[in-house]
Amino acid sequence: MKKQAFNPYLPSYEYIPDGEPYVFGDRLYVYGSHDRFNGQLFCMNDYVCWSAPVHDLSDWRYEGVIYKKKQDPKNRLGLLQMFAPDVARGTDGRYYLYYTAGFSSVMSIAVCDTPAGNYEFYGYVSRSDGSVLWDQSGDPILFDPGVLVDDDGRVYLYSGFAPKRGVPSILTGLKKRTCKGGYVIELEKDMKTVVGEPKLIFEKVGNAKGTGFEGHEFFEASSIRRIIDTYYFIYSSINGHELCYATSKSPTGEFIYGGTLVSNGDLFVNGESLDEAAYNYIGNNHGSIVEVENQWYVFHHRQTNRHHYSRQGLAEPIEIKEDGSISQVEMTSCGLNNGPLRGKGEYEARIACHLTSKGGAGRYGVYFGNITFKAHPYFTQSGRDRENNPNQYIANMRDGATAGYKYFMIEDLKEVAINVRGNASGTILVSTSLNSEPIAKIKIEPSRNFTDYRTMVNMENGRQALYFTYEGSGKLDFMSFVLR
Questions:
Q1: Closest CA to 157 of 114, 190, 130, 129
Q2: 3-state class of 369 per DSSP?
Q3: pLDDT value, residue 171
Q4: Which phi and psi (to 5°) does residue 462 adopt?
Q5: Which end of the chain is more exposed for a tag (fewer CB within 10 A), N or C?
Q6: How far apart are CA 292 and CA 108, in angstroms?
Q7: Mind telling me the catalytic residues?
């Protein structure tokens, strides 16, 4: 029986946000930041890479560490985080990795002969006289690179950071930075020397009136793809939780706002925009799109552990219509599976695409999310950060908390079983949509160890969602469920 793909698509111990997916040869590679489980900051670990054969996106392979923080001469002690990277294949056939170390505003480059080998430090994006680009007070901040080697061999670097209130000087050091929006910077074929002057192409919030980007102005997370004769710019908007796209017929031309691709709280997908209406706990988002075997996908990420610092990669299939537009897709548990999961078998609770408390979800604070959401359910794992032994689960489900899963192909389902632990005493309601009448009820009792509880169920065949809602006293941890 063919293996299934899930969301998140990597093992549950892996925390790779800001995913940039590329097909090189017959494999799909994902490059991203590398968060630490229960880390205290973003992007604390070295860069690693994962890949999968294009014909089986359930079969992910760990490629290992491809670049270490201490390899950058400006980061010999490894104290600076390496933020979201991008990778591009140069005209010389080598692979170039771009990143910034902390908020230094210096764009660093590493290079390798293979997509997932050992990258070596190559240099910094610089002017023709050798001076580092934008290294003075008052210069715009370089952040979140997106790199395109166009069909004609010309190279473009997209970068920018535009929060509403600018960047605190405590992050950028003694050199104050300006944050006006998103820029395009042409590079020589050596992949690091600037050609001409950078051009501002995306205005920040407050300066975007009349551009068509109002309400979805550029914030960060530049990414670029060329599809036939159209350039698709993917970015994180000022809303934070969503990836948006814009299109142009020129890599440096006037981009037109296209819409939202995906939200990690499913906001906007049902016409809702308030954080409190989120179907999942939201935070920043970053990713891009890729075509694999004639199917396009959007890659993005979710937050875990009640904060921003342990993010995990997600992916969904998307459709690029004949007119070039892309409709927003909903979050699912199946993602790269390209269809519903089987309606029989055991599933980890951690593949929930919706997770809320009785009072809803909300936006994690950058520093105090775990305090604000103390009484809310969340994704977590036992033990420390590692590259093995997955055991992620949903913790702290209290009265009214719901975990939702989309979708399964149900066929003659007779029984549903759950595996939970905790001091909870009550009932798990099983339903096919949020807030709908339950199709089954599972009584649970307090248990120190993970324990199975089950019930018979009568459910319609076909493509169905499943929602598990706890009602009762105490709290529980949710490890898995079984459909029989």
A1: 190
A2: helix
A3: 64
A4: 115, -175
A5: N
A6: 29
A7: 18, 220
Nearest to 113 by CA among 94, 97, 98, 96: 94
Q: List, as one string, the DSSP characters of 136-152.
A: STTSBPP-S-EEEE-TT
What residue has token string 């993917």?
234
**Across residues 260-285, what is the average pLDDT?**
93
User: Helix (H, G, I), strand (E, B), or coil: what is residue 320?
Assistant: strand
Count of CB atoms situated within 10 Å of the CB of 285: 30
Q: From 158, 153, 120, 164, select the one nearest 142 (Cα to Cα).
A: 158
The pLDDT of residue 272: 83
Dihedral angle of Cα 312, 105, 221, 120, to the nearest 10 degrees: -60
CA 40, CA 225: separation in Å to the nearest integer? 33
Token pair of 179 as six digits: 């944050």
First to last CA, the chain: 17
Q: In what helix (H) or strand (E) does residue 100 lie, and over which residues does it extend?
A: strand 95-100
Domains parsed from the chain with CATH numbers:
20-331 (2.115.10.20), 342-483 (2.60.120.260)
CA distance 51 to 49: 7
Q: Please give the angle made by the CA atoms of 379, 380 and 383, to the nearest 5 degrees.
A: 170
Between 275 and 27, the higher pLDDT residue: 27
The number of angstroms, rounded, from the C-alpha of 173 to the middle of its chain's C-alpha atoms is: 28
Both tokens of residue 301?
Answer: 């990420």
Contacts of 67 (CB under 8 A, 6+ apart): 46, 47, 82, 97, 110, 118, 119
Residues 6+ apart with CB under 8 A from 382: 391
146-191 pLDDT, tens per residue? 999 999 999 999 999 999 876 666 566 657 888 999 999 999 999 9
The tokens for 102 are 């902390």
Number of other residues whose CB lies within 10 A of the CB of residue 380? 19
Return the exposure string of 197-232: e unless at least 16 CB atoms fall within 10 Å of the residue's CB, then b: ebeebbbbbeebeebebeebbbbbbbbbbeeeeebb
At residue 1, does pLDDT exceed 90?
no
Query: Largest Cα–Cα distance of the chain, in whole Å?
Result: 74
pLDDT confidence of residue 2 = 80
pTM of the model: 0.97
